[in-house]
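question for whoever is on the cluster today: can someone run the full assembly for these? two chains, 223 residues total. i dont have access anymore since they changed the login thing
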Amino acid sequence: DIQMTQSPSFLSASVGDRVTINCKASQNINRYLNWYQQKLGEAPKLLIYNANSLQTGIPSRFSGSGSGTDFTLTISSLQPEDVATYFCLQHNSWPRTFGGGTKLELK
Amino acid sequence: EVQLVESGGGLVQPGRSLKLSCAASGFTFSNYGMHWIRQAPTKGLEWVASISPSGGSTYYRDSVKGRFTIYRDNAKSTLYLQMDSLRSEDTATYYCATDEDSHSYWGQGVMVTVSS
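^ ran it for u. tokens below:
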């Protein structure tokens, strides 16, 4: 199974900050990496698919990069509504595996 | 508007069975693979099972192989998860989802509690 190591697990930042979250795959997953945002009590929502494609309706302050084994989600200017937990998911092979999550809070 | 509505959750004793359903609307159900994903209380997301658009191919995580069965009825636009021999570690909110490139929709989830 492909292990997805997500870091950091917890992040505190201020409004306007640039925030980066990382996922590292235990083996090459090409660009088959999605990023999701989950707010408290809600279902996850897709932000980025296939490493760097912005989902329709998602603000452009969110971006994704990477390929192979190392991936990054960037929020260019943190907004209060971005408080949430973020997960990566590899869909290169079965079984699908998620990263452990990054809980983002406002400082 | 795309909607995925799960049902069938509840409290069940260890070793017993439960069947989850997911009613889909707003898209051509038979064109898309479907997934069950779960989240234990205060934990992360865990992929459980997937099924191809026709239902001809299925995939499971190791811990549920032989106990859970994913299947679909394309005429009814409904996805199912038959869960047998339930264990306490299966306690979670179960989400159904379709997730192919930008076509990503998740239900609101249904809670399954396995406890005596």
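summary bc i know u wont read the tokens: The radius of gyration of chain B is 13 Å. Residues 20 and 42 of chain B are 21 Å apart (CA to CA).
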